[in-house]
Design goal:
Layout: E1 22-25, E2 28-29, E3 33-34, E4 38-41, E5 57-60, H1 86-95, E6 106-110, H2 121-134, E7 139-142, H3 145-148, H4 177-182, H5 190-195, E8 207-211, E9 214-218
Parallel strand pairs: 5-6, 6-7
Antiparallel strand pairs: 1-4, 2-3, 8-9
Helix pairs in contact: 1-2
Length: 231
Amino acid sequence: SGYFDNGYMLTGYLLNLQPDTTYYYQVGDESFGWTEIYNFTSPPKYGSMTSRGDLKFIIFGDMGNVAIDYSMHHSWDFGNEGEIYSINTTKAIKLFTNGSQDVTDAVIHIGDISYAVGFLSEWDDFFHQIQPVSSQIPWMTGIGNHEYSWTGEWKPPTSDVSADAYGNADGGGECGVPYNFYFPFANNNQAESNDADYNPNIVEPWYVFDYGMVRTIVMSTEHDYGINSTQ
C-alpha cells in the first residue's frame, strides 16, 4: 500500500554498431552518479554465425518475480510471497550467460513476464531481478495473458476453446500498457503504439527479430492469429 513514484523511463537507441563487437557502457550523470561499467556484445552480421562458431538462446515462458528484500507482496503464489523460486531461474540463466556454465546470446521470455498484475512496484522488482542478465544480453519478450487479459480483448470464435482459457482479469487491469511501455520493441507498430500511449486497441504486440542467422517470429495468442487476421 502507499504511493509509488513512477519515476522516469529513458529509452536509448544505439546506432551504427559494428557486428559481433563487445561494447562497454555506464548509465547515469555527474549529478546523481554512475552505475558500474557493463558490457554487451552486438549481434553478428545478418545471416552470419558468431565468432565463437555457434548461436545459443535461452527460451522459456512464465517466471514472475520476488520482492527485492523477500518481503510479502501481492501474489497468487506462495501465500503472497511472490514467485519465490523465480530467483533461481534468473540465477541459473546468469550462470549460462557469464561463462560459468556456458555462454548465451539472448533470452526469449515468451509470456507471463513479471506477474505484476496491476502492482507497478512489482515491475521494479522484476527488472532488479533480471538486471544481471539483461544488462549484458538481449531479454526479448512475448506478451501473455498476465500482461494483457482484459474485458475487451479478442476471444477465439470457436467452441473448441474453453471460455476459461481467455479470462478477463488475468492481467489485473494492466491491459498490456506497462508491458508495452517497458518493452517498446516488442510490437509490430512501435511509433503508432507510442503515440497512442500503448492503447490496447492500437498496439500490435507481435514482431520479428533477427540475430545473426536466426530469425525469431514472436506471436500473440491473446490476439486474433487466424487466417486473414492482421497478425
